[in-house]
Design a protein that fits this description.
The complex is a heterotrimer of chains A (278), B (422) and C (294).
Chain A lengths: L3 H31 L4 H7 L14 H9 L2 H32 L5 H13 L2 H14 L7 H4 L6 H11 L4 H9 L4 H12 L1 H17 L2 H6 L8 H4 L11 H35 L1
Helix pairs in contact in A: 1-14, 3-14, 4-8, 4-11, 5-8, 8-11, 11-14
Chain B lengths: L1 H21 L2 E9 L2 H16 L4 E9 L3 H10 L6 E5 L3 H6 L12 H6 L2 H7 E2 L2 E2 L1 E2 L2 E2 L2 E6 H6 L14 H13 L5 E4 L8 H13 L19 H15 L18 E7 L3 H8 L3 E4 L16 E4 L7 H11 L2 H11 L2 E2 L2 H4 L12 H9 L10 H16 L4 H19 L6
Helix pairs in contact in B: 2-13, 16-17
Chain C lengths: L5 H29 L19 H7 L2 H32 L6 H13 L2 H11 L5 H9 L13 H29 L3 H9 L4 H12 L1 H16 L3 H6 L11 H11 L3 H26 L7
The chains are: A mainly alpha (278), B alpha/beta (422), C mainly alpha (294).
Chain lengths: 278, 422, 294
Amino acid sequence: MFDFRTRRKFILYTIMTILFIIFFFPLLYMISTSLTPNEDLILQNMSTIRAFFPSEIGLKNFSDVFQRMPFGRFLFNSLFIVSTTILLGLVVNSMMAFGLARFNFKGRNLIISTVLALMIIPFEAIAVPLLLITNRLGWLDSYQVQIIPFIANPFYIFLLYQFFINFPKELEEAAIIDGANWYQIYYKVAMPLSKPVLASVAILHFLMQWRRFLWPLMVTRGPSYRPLTVAMQVFFGEYPRLWGDIMAYVAMMTLPVVILFVILQDRYVSTVARSGIK
Amino acid sequence: MKKLLTISIVLLLTFVMAGSVVAQTEIEVWFHSGRGSEREVIRDQAQRFSEMDNGITVNLVKLPEGSYTQQVQSAAAAGDLPDVLDLDGPTIANYAWSGFLKPLGEFVPEEMEEDFLPSILEQGYYKGNLYALGTFDSGLAFWGNKEYLEEVNARIPEGVEDAWTFQEFMDITKRLQELSEVEYALDMKLNYGVNEHYTYEFSPFLQAFGGDLINRETMVAEGTINGPEANAFASWFQSLFERGYADPNPPGDTQFIEGKTALAWVGHWTFNQHKNALGDDAILIPAPKFMGGKQATGMGSWAWSMPSSTEHPEAAWEFMKFILQPEEIIKMTNANGAVPARESAIEMSELYKEGGELNLFVEQLQKIAVPRPVTPAYPTITSAFQTAMDNIINGADVSQELNDAAETIDEEIEYMGIEQGE
Amino acid sequence: MNRSNKTVIGTFLTPAVVLLMAFMILPFVMAFVLSFTNSRLIPGPRGTQYIGLTNYQKLVEDNMFWRGLKHNFYFVIIVVPIQTSLALLLAILVNQKLKFSKFFRTFYFIPTVTAMVAVAVVWSFLYHPNGLINSFLTFITGGVWGGVDFLNTTRWAFPAIMAMSIWQGVGFQMLIFLAGLQDIPSSYYEAADIDGANSWEKFKYITLPQLKNTTTFVVISTTILAFRLFTQILVMTNGGPQGSTYTVMLHIYKMAYQRLNIGYGSALTVVFFIIILIISLLQRYLLGEQREVA
């Protein structure tokens, strides 16, 4: 006979485990395929349960990837582009959101509505004009062409705005009494208090930049500035496709994001702990 | 005065000599990076060419194949093309129409041009000008499983001339389907996905039925892609799936080598895969003679061309000439297994020369290969055909699908303002 | 308390405003202009010409556009509510103070971070007639389930894409809800405990109202992302079978990047933009969010 707490825990764990299987299952498929060195075996097992238990295991696909391309270079390019965009984006977007959330001025509603409208524009729709603009600026085949257009993002401005607008006035007023100006309030009060939302904005921004494909495809040429998504196209030209190599590549591409997520998660947990004390 | 003259002469000479050292022309070459072996060959060729004492160095840029066409299109839009690049056959016309490519006529000597396969020239010519020359072509035929074919007493054709007739082909298919080991008599390689390969591999059947994608004289689709011959073709093709002769959704790429299918309609690139698995049981069978004895097969591959924006056309041509030499062609085709583009290179190829195992591909290219329509509207033609075929395979109404395709194509041609003959 | 110091406001807004103007608004205005031309990615010999409203007339008669739009609505109506509620449930679940909840949270999020191209390929294998999902369904129904070619049947293809999209996208919304949940002061719950409220009452009277702005954001952003449905369609069905999974973004992509018809692609974009804008404004009005400085 369980007591109430144990039974609740048991139910929760069961649900979480079932969900875990549902969410992890296809990815396990990816991993086991990447570890199957024999391409014929992969093709034969593709649609069956045997795909999860390959009879041969090896790292050949991974070494193939490194042999076919300077993977390290592309990884560096992607990481550099994405981290620069996020850092600059956090500053620029949070400033704009703070400005919209904490001040009253003429045109404020217009700007908010514009930001909302901009969220809707799919990137594919403006890619060609943007190509013409950045070409005019002489930016083609560079890092900045992959960074600067993506720093300001209406999604994140809107998300941060939603959070800043909830801040109690009293916090700011207390800071003003202590002699702080608006910049100090932004930097020393608002930013530290919104760590969880900043962490999620960072993760979402990371994802969006990490996956970006159409744009780098249009603006990069040689391997110098090529990111991982474009480099992946090496596998998608000829038939038959080498699924082992593709899956090994994708697994290596996914890993940095998972690591980032695990690191940023600690941020959340510390926030939870702190709000418990409050 | 004399002194001044001496100094000027010395200075002039210094400049000239310095100039001749500096006058190393660098040309940028783009190519799609396919499989490793192909990449190694082109890298080696570029290196040997740069080391030659001709004052030209090559900056070779490999672009990933899966997105190559899009990258080149963006570069063209931005006015950012290199000195030499390779283009996929069916896209050449669009660039030529737009004036992005330099005609090669002034560079190519007549005897060199005559040495190329007719299919390579058909693909490279647009409005009477030659814009591209490939180092290789592709070959498309049936790969047969000899064991099964012998089991059903099928006649094995020798070459293009004595290919199966339509009746014979259908008869053999039916008997193959009855074999217990065979799940599907025919393998249409639908696992490649709905893309260019649909047009490459299925439009030859359409042409063997007497139809076509578009009327090549008037450049109008109405009445051709939805004409009676095309309808007959599409109904027949649909019936292959309805009758269970072909799998509309194959689980992988291995049906033929596992012996689950008996006849695979696919290109030269499967040669190694098939030989490794089936050995001498994998045999090549020419495209059958369909309606009125008509035969057709696919053709076309990557080809080299020169953007009109290049500042070094002479140097660019030197490089193209270098890689188009028979000895260099053969290095490439030995690596990727494709059909060498020049007759003189074919003679040097073990697989493709007279009596070689894959000579049938050459024979087909010389006699029955049909180029995909050379028109800037090709992207629309192929996508309309692909959509129609995909739907037809999945059981849609044949005549409606073909009418839709015709309408889409003709609308686009009118919208693009393509004039007759363009 | 001065909430209208122009210099201060200017400093906060300028960087983002300049960037948005240069790299979003300007290109969109250019796209609007291009929609009245026959512009092509690789222009023809006669260059780009002004063609008035031709593109918009073409659009009105373009069956594929309307069919795609219908599918987009269908997708939004089904996926947005399911995905949003599922995301909230997941967020609450992993926000429990349990051992390993961090571990589970990470794994629920992984599908979101995996390249869509790879995920879509894996699911194509799972959905295959002899694939694992069919095998599983046959197994648990004791053989009653006959096996379905999910991605090649007009009836099943779109629901299959929907299920896969929810699976892939729910981690994204879970994360935003999680941030929202952790923003609720725990003192509220403690006070409720003292008043003797049960879990459901706490959820209804504290959690939900406190998550109002978060929910608004999640619903609006999920709707927008749902309208952009594209990559999985391109990889898994390419709009088929028989157009049953065709969407507007796929249509725009095909027109602009396969047929290189930038002018027409731009016209499609402008119209699509206006439609989504109206829906988002409607949602915002209905969900009614806080607009003024607190």
